[in-house]
Write a structure and sequence with these properties.
- The chain is an all-beta fold and about 350 residues long.
- The chain has helices at about 255-260, 310, and strands spanning about 1-15, 20-35, 50-70, 75-90, 115, 120, 130, 135-140, 145, 150, 175-180, 195, 205-215, 215-225, 230, 290, 295-305, 320-330, 355-360.
- It has a 9-stranded antiparallel β-sheet with strand order 1-2-3-4-13-14-17-18-19.
- Strand 7 (about 130) and strand 8 form a beta hairpin.
């Protein structure tokens, strides 16, 4: 494997060194990445070794800043960092059938998932059938499926009906995920998967630390976050095995909840499990590809240092009392699915911790 790197840096100090800023731009071009051939015909019945085949470009920006100042007995500081990291696969050996170039990983970010495309949920029987005067579905009058605003047809000339666009032929009903017939063949199958969405590696990372000291009191807070990131939300099938339930299932679709205007975050309990994924790296379809951007109050410390003149009288150099907390609060658009850093995994959850202590130096 060969790596070629470019790194440009700029460092600035202003206002008598109260403010310092460091900026970096980088490029990384890697060739000869060890990987397996995936275009070997089935007639070759052998376990071939990996080859130096792959090629990936990475690039990005890193920024750090620090500002410190003092006003009388009050001193304070602000420190921050931000990063933008992107990459693209230039080559990997992959079997792509004619007409399905949209499934290629080449030209896409590393780790971008191959998913069925979801357009929300079906919310009524009228999505599948015409209805009579009482609102009942007319099963002999199915609704035509539309493509580019027009009805379309299968290769044999038969019209495509919306009721037939269930993945793997599974019958549809209100509350199921509406999947897109990408190649227009009148079926929803693996040919309709495309490379899409953010990966589990965030494009944007950022952090901010704030703090001050005043007459013995000190406070510091650390915020951290990411954006441009997504993970498969299904660590395992819901309503499966021992009927696994998660917080998001409280917001699953029912006609009663939908008609009442309640928030809906999950399809019906009898959703098509064949169209869903499992784990952070495979969402199955874009409905389950969850935006896991977040900002977290990662650490907060409050302390007080006692007056040294008083302490020296009893033979103590310094004493500081403090309380602290970790992972105190998270702002995230999809917290109903679980902790954004752990989503799609089955493991020990992120814990919120509190500490109190005293430091005594003699």
């Amino acid at each position: 494997e060969v790596s070629k790197d470019l790194d440009l840096s700029l460092e600035v100090h202003l206002f008598k060194n109260k403010l310092s800023v460091t900026y970096d731009y980088f490029e990384n071009h890697r060739t000869g990445i060890l990987s397996y051939r995936r275009t070997v015909p089935d007639i070759v019945q052998a376990n071939l070794p990996p080859y130096n085949l792959g090629s990936v470009d990475s690039w990005g920006h890193d920024l750090e800043f620090k500002f410190e100042d003092k006003i009388g007995a009050f001193s304070y500081y602000i420190r921050g960092n931000a990063a933008i990291h992107k990459n693209k696969i230039l080559f990997q050996d992959e079997p792509i059938l004619a007409g399905q170039q949209y499934q290629a990983a080449t030209g896409r970010p590393v780790g971008q998932q191959l998913l069925l495309q979801a357009e929300g949920l079906y919310t009524s029987w009228s999505d599948f059938y015409a209805r009579d005067g009482n609102g009942n579905p007319l099963l002999d009058q199915p609704v035509l499926a539309m493509r580019d605003g027009q009805p379309y047809f299968k290769a044999n000339g038969d019209p495509v009906y919306q009721k037939d666009l269930g993945y793997a032929g599974v019958p549809l009903q209100p509350g199921e995920i509406r999947l897109v017939d990408i190649n227009g063949d009148g079926l929803i199958d693996d040919k309709d998967r495309i490379r899409t969405g953010d990966t589990r590696d965030p494009v944007y990372n950022f952090g901010l630390t704030l703090g001050f000291n005043y007459k013995g009191f000190d406070v510091s807070a650390l915020f951290a976050g990411v954006a441009g990131v997504a993970r498969g939300g299904m660590s395992e099938l819901h309503f499966n095995k021992q009927q696994s339930l998660f917080g998001v299932d409280a917001n699953r679709f029912t006609l009663e909840r939908y008609n009442a205007g309640d928030r809906v975050d999950f399809p019906i309990a009898a959703y098509n499990q064949q169209a869903s994924g499992s784990g952070a790296d495979f969402a199955g379809n874009t409905f389950f590809l969850i935006n896991t951007s977040y900002v977290r109050l990662q650490n907060l410390v409050i302390g007080y240092t006692f007056n040294k003149a008083f302490l020296k009288r009893v033979g103590i150099q310094s004493t500081r009392l403090f309380i602290s907390g970790d992972n105190l609060y998270t702002w995230a658009p999809n917290k109903i699915w679980g902790d954004p850093e752990n989503l799609g995994n089955i493991g020990y959850p992120l814990t919120k911790t509190f500490n109190a202590g005293i430091n005594i130096n003699f």
